[in-house]
Specification:
Helix content: 40-55%
Radius of gyration: 13 Å
Distance between the termini: 24 Å
Number of strands: 4
Oligomer: single chain
Strand order of the largest sheet: 2-1-3-4
Strand content: 15-25%
Structural class: alpha/beta
Order of helices and strands: EHHEHEHE
Shape: globular
Length: about 100
């Protein structure tokens, strides 16, 4: 299975300007690779992009599963991006977080 892991963008006025390493997402990705899955990670906090560009990335990667790492301040953007995934592919969408 091909998995696209997403570290979503956060509103800086809520979360602050510091970036952080999505360690939980890295652990999940490593475990999935060990289980034989192909994993691609997309860090939208460090590399912001428009919804159109995100849709292009989803189509280009053609994943079976798109998994979002979610914290409360990112919920609205994750729901919006999950809708983009649903319109751009047949991938299943998974939301998880601390």
């Amino acid at each position: 299975m091909k998995v696209l892991l997403i570290h979503p963008p956060l509103k800086q006025e809520i979360w602050g300007t510091d970036s952080y390493l999505p360690l939980g997402m890295a652990y999940v990705g490593a475990a999935m690779e060990e289980a034989g899955h192909k994993v691609v990670a997309l860090d939208m906090l460090m590399n912001p992009m428009s919804d159109d560009r995100f849709a292009d990335e989803v189509r280009r990667e053609n994943p079976d599963l798109v998994a979002f790492s979610v914290v409360t301040p990112a919920v609205k953007s994750v729901f919006r991006l999950a809708g983009v995934v649903k319109q751009s592919s047949k991938a299943k969408v998974l939301l998880g977080g601390p």
